[in-house]
Inverse folding.
């Protein structure tokens, strides 16, 4: 008995040790980016800034937030996330509901049809040609319509719905409820945990997306924040904008910014907003993933 308790303590010790190491490995790089973004550019060049800013300043953030291109990119990203994520959750749920019903004609065939699309695709060029034929190139709809359906998330929601008691649906039909009433007033409230989880995943996908803006839009008004960030990072790596930003900083009688501090500040501006969403959805996130991932 004592050996079992001692073994359990040793096991828990190593589990906690591994978790702490994983936390440090994932958190410290992010913390270092924040520290560098808050440190003076002149002091950053000296190196040795890791855990705390030696000369705290907000010059890099001030420079970033003065850029109209970044502000427009932030607006486009917020708009596509606010519109795209809820619409995607609605479409995914409306497809998952009939596929979860055992009395659906051809249920197996429909499920195999959608699963097939997860493994086989036409590639980038046919995808571009389809978008062009639908007149979606260089329009805001290219951010919303192609991402409305995600088969993997649909399977998670479908599996969750299959575990709901069928007696609830039967009793609702006895009371005169039709399929739409059952779906919106019974099924969707009961699937709130998994819907919140899928909504979070979709929101993160929209927020972090940059390739569709880079490849399928030409207007600067349609560039997302992540696409602007990629542009900033590449330009500062080549040194193309360093002199311009330094001249602007000097002209406003502020401390000069460097390519490192600008890149770190831009990364934080693009990352922090979506991170702040996690605490509000954490309770749904854990429950939704565990209940929707295992078929009973």
């Amino acid at each position: 008995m004592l050996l079992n308790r001692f073994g359990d303590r040793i096991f828990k010790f190593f589990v906690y040790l591994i978790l702490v190491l994983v936390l440090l490995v994932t958190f410290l790089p992010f913390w270092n980016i924040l520290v560098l973004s808050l440190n003076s550019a002149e002091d950053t060049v000296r190196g040795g800034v890791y855990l705390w800013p030696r000369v705290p300043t907000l010059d890099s953030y001030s420079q970033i937030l003065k850029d109209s291109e970044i502000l427009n990119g932030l607006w486009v990203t917020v708009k596509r996330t606010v519109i795209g994520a809820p619409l995607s959750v609605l479409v995914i749920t409306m497809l998952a509901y009939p596929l979860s019903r055992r009395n659906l004609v051809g249920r197996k065939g429909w499920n195999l049809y959608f699963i097939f699309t997860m493994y086989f695709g036409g590639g980038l060029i046919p995808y571009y040609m389809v978008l062009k034929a639908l007149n979606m190139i260089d329009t805001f709809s290219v951010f919303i319509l192609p991402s409305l359906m995600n088969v993997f998330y649909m399977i998670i929601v479908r599996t969750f719905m299959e575990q709901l008691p069928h007696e609830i649906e039967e009793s609702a039909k006895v009371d005169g409820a039709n399929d739409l009433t059952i779906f919106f007033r019974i099924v969707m409230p009961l699937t709130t945990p998994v819907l919140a989880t899928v909504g979070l995943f979709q929101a993160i996908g929209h927020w972090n997306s940059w390739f569709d803006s880079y490849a399928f839009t030409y207007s600067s008004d349609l560039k997302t924040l992540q696409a602007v960030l990629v542009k900033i990072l590449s330009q500062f790596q080549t040194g193309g904008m360093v002199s311009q930003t330094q001249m602007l900083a000097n002209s406003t009688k502020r401390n000069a910014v460097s390519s490192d501090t600008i890149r770190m500040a831009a990364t934080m501006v693009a990352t922090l907003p979506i991170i702040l969403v996690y605490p509000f959805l954490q309770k749904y996130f854990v429950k939704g993933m565990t209940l929707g991932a295992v078929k009973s």
Notes: The two ends are 35 Å apart (CA to CA). The CA atoms of residues 38 and 57 lie 5 Å apart. The longest helix spans residues 2-37. Residues 239-256, 292-296 have pLDDT under 50 and may be disordered.
